[in-house]
Every structure is written in C-alpha cells, then in structure tokens.
C-alpha cells in the first residue's frame, strides 16, 4: 500500500538529507585571493609537503603556461599517464592567467584533506542509491560502439581529473557515464539521452577536460582581444550555465584547464575580463555568445569539442536559429572535424532529425527509455479545479509542515505557467505564512540568483518558478515538485519533476490536473504507467477518451512510446545521417548494457 504523500515527502527528505552532494548551483567555494607570485618562487608549491615539480606542455588557457606540483601519491586510473600540471597538495594550485600568477581557488572548499588520494574502492558511498540504476536498460546504436566501463579506474582520464572525481566522492560511474565517457574518449560524436539527475554533466565534462589535458600544446592564434576556446558547452538558461561552470571548475581543478562562463543579464565587462585571463572551456548561453562573436571577442576557430546540454531544448524552435548561427555560420570547425556531444533527458524524434545536421557518424545512446522519468520519483496527480488550486496547495503545504522532519527543511518547488502567476502565487504564499520566493524571466538576473540562493539555503523553502527552472538545475534537498499548472508538453513535465529524485535519491512530484489539461491526459498516464506509478482511474478514463492531439506529446494517440534512435525507424534519410545510415543500411544495435543479456528483448523492439 502506498503511504500518504506527506509521509513520502518526509521520508524522501530524511533519506536525501543523509547524502551530501558534490554539485549544485552556487556551491560554496572558499574564496582565495589571487596572489602574485614572484618569478623566483613560482616553482615552489604552497603545500608544506615537498612535491616534485612538473612541467607539462599541455595547452593552457590561451597559450599561457603554468607550473604545478604534481602529487606524489599513487597513480590510479587506467594506464595512468600523467597529463596534468596540477598540484596535488592541500588547498589550491597555481595557474598562469593573463601573464600574472594566481592561486587557483579550491572549488571543494576546505575539504581537500587528502581524501583525493584514497582509492576509489575505499571511498564511502555518500548515500547515492546506485542500485536504483542497476536494472536500467541501455541501448547504443551506430557504427562500432566502444564498450562501456564499470569503474572510473578503467578509464584513463588523467591523474588530476581522477583526483577531482574522488574529491567529488563519485564512487562509481552512473550508467550514462559508463557508456558515454568511453564513446566520447574514442572521439565519437554522440547523441545521449538519460534520465534527469543521472549525471549527464560529468558525462560530457570528463572527456572534454581529459581531451584538452592530453591534447598536447596547441598554438592558438593571437588576436588582439579575441580569445580562442578549445571547447564550447551551450545550455539554455543562465542558471544552468552557471551550474555547469561550477561543476566543470571542480572537475578541472588543478588540471590547468581554464573554464569560463558567459551568460546574459550580467555585465559583459566582467565576463570580458574573465575571458581575457584565458579560456579553454567556454560555457555559454546562446544569446550572450552571439553577442561576443559579433564583437569578435570570441572566435570558435579552435573548437575541438562542442557540447549541447538540454540539446532538444537548444534545437527547439526558440533556440534553433541561434544555434545554427553559432555552429554553422561562424568559424567553428565543421562536424567531423570537431567532436559534438548532445545530451538531454528527452529527445523527440523531430529534434533528433534536426540534431543529426550537427553530428557526424554519431552514436545514439539511450539510458532508460527516451523521455522516461525515473522511478525514484513518486508521481501523484490530483484533480483540482482552477479556482481551488490555491487552497489545495495550502493544504498540501500545511500537511507537509506537520509531517516535516526536523533539521534542514525540505524544499518545495512549485511550477506555474506564467511570470505573473509566479509573482502572484509567491505573494499569496508569503502572506499566508509560507516563506516563498520566485524565479522567472521578468526578474532581473540579480533577483533570479538571489531567489535561487535563498531557496537552496532553506531561507525561503518554497520556490515558485516558471519553466526557466525546469531544466538541469541540480538543487540538493528538493523533496517535492508541485505542478500547480501543468505544462502543455509531457517532456516539460519530465524535466520539471526531475528537479527532485536526483542521483539515486527519492523524490515526490504532485500535479494539479483539470479540464484545461486534457491534452496531457494520455501522455501523462502513459508516462506514469511506464515508470510504475499508480495512475488514478479518472486519469485513465480521461486518457482513453483523449483524442489524438499530435504535436510534441509524442505518447499521445499512438499509445506506443517512440523511445529510440530515429535512424532505426528507416523512414528518414538526409544530411549527415544519409552519409552513414541508408534506409536499410544502418548498423544496430551494438550491444545492450545494464545487466541485460543479448537474449533479452529490447524495450524498443
Ligand atoms: N558518478 C556519480 N556518483 C555520485 N554522484 C554523481 C555521479 N555523477 C553525478 N553525480 C551527481 O548527480 C547529480 C545529478 O547530476 P547532473 O546534474 O549531471 O544530472 P543530469 O543528468 O544532467 O540531470 P538533468 O537531466 O536534470 O540535467 C549531481 O549532484 C552530481 O554531482
């Protein structure tokens, strides 16, 4: 029998609080002031430990070289070639930026107590429920798919990166990482689909950082003010770009690989200054990047790695022209020369078709069904009239408060349709005893960041949000996502509820459904069924009555979920795909992973 939703919140919170996350927007980083190091001291490490000096001719941000003491600990991770320049000592490394020498801020705060030297096998499991991922069905299609790995130690990512993985307390790779990292390290283009919260960020960051580290010294053109990053990571929202930047900085700590973020709504002058200090990996939102390209402050001529996070969103109507401009109408090397990686939890077929234009002989990887939601999230849907939504929300919040566990407060994310609706609901909640804040496109960037910080810290444990917060954000302790207004598109629903139940932890999602949401009845019922949720009878009745509505609600009408590589449909043949995959001439599937033998029928067959 199911427990009540309030109990579920309480237990999800209790479980989730047991774990401590490595990731997150605005994770606290101990700030360390830049320090000038006189030339005669530049080859001394800051640690009290004596350390061998190493000089490496790997490419540094815009051709600036740096020295770093290499740690003397045992080498781990594959064949263990030492690609890095990092200092393995405590509390920070040294980096050359803009001709001066700066101490690299330790993004792990002061927890760098030598644990990075621990063997992977000795690490504590930090509360991540890895078993939740073990049974997941994995399918990869394309030519010569590199086999997956089971452990990080099997992959030769480089010593410094391995040390950072340990600092993050990642004990073993998640399924998408097991499969995607070897594919990317083999320099293959990739379209990867894996459930929300399953570790896609690291899956594209690790190979990029490792590739730049092992790439050897690379002469970059010298523009007066132009910078030449080696890798570009694009994401649809400012907050997600900031989060990817924070994550990538952790992974790149002491590797000498410099990560910079640019996004709209923040002063461009500050971002330009940061760029001038050198950049290897540029994380960007499309609008701000186009601005910088037009000002000739960034050139994409040297790009070796292009990653699109939330790729289906990036190629959706809103963003596609900008993405095409960036990828096809600039000096970026063409597909086949650069390596391109697309990641998302959802990948509608029509977007897969568009995406194929950016890829060359790519591998399609699906971890779980495309667009499915994780079973870690308990989904509830309640029939609530429009006029009753506020009082119903209050009831939920009161019960949640009554059942709340002590300690850090469970965070609740409430999604609404409009910016006005977000403001008004925030006001309503705040004046009714529930401290709330809001995030949406009409708020200034400063307000957005403040709201997110206040939510994360638990000061305002309720965040009312539009879809600007639906994708990618990894906020620890979100125990409950409430769809006060349901979205029109089932994929948006998948991303929204994916703000809880991340990295193996449990979560709860409640949706208010009424006659205005009829077009979602069928895809919602299908999605819930597919992720083993209890579907209310009334929703099943609505779903069976629902007419085919077409559009992007791909589960509606047909009843069968099209979670697969569109090339396998054999109905579409154009552009880059036709070069490699004739209608009857594709090679699939190379293997099935996730504990399934080859005799097991694929979910897509
Ligand atoms: N191997 C690992 N072991 C433990 N935790 C991990 C591992 N890889 C990633 N994580 C953690 O899992 C959480 C979710 O990762 P991430 O944000 O990359 O998910 P995602 O798949 O990109 O989700 P979304 O689809 O919502 O964007 C993060 O807190 C991250 O630090």
UniProtKB/TrEMBL annotation:
Residue span of motif Q motif: 150-178
Annotated Polar residues bias: 44-59
EC nos: 3.6.4.13
Family annotation (InterPro entries): DEAD/DEAH_box_helicase_dom, Ded1/Dbp1_DEADc, Helicase_ATP-bd, Helicase_C-like, P-loop_NTPase, RNA_helicase_DEAD_Q_motif
Xref: SMART domains: DEXDc (SM00487), HELICc (SM00490)
PROSITE patterns: HELICASE_ATP_BIND_1, HELICASE_CTER, Q_MOTIF
Region called Disordered, residue ranges: 18-120
Top-level taxonomy: Eukaryota, Viridiplantae, Streptophyta, Embryophyta, Tracheophyta
Protein name: RNA helicase
Cross-referenced Gene3D superfamilies: P-loop containing nucleotide triphosphate hydrolases
A GO MF term: RNA helicase activity
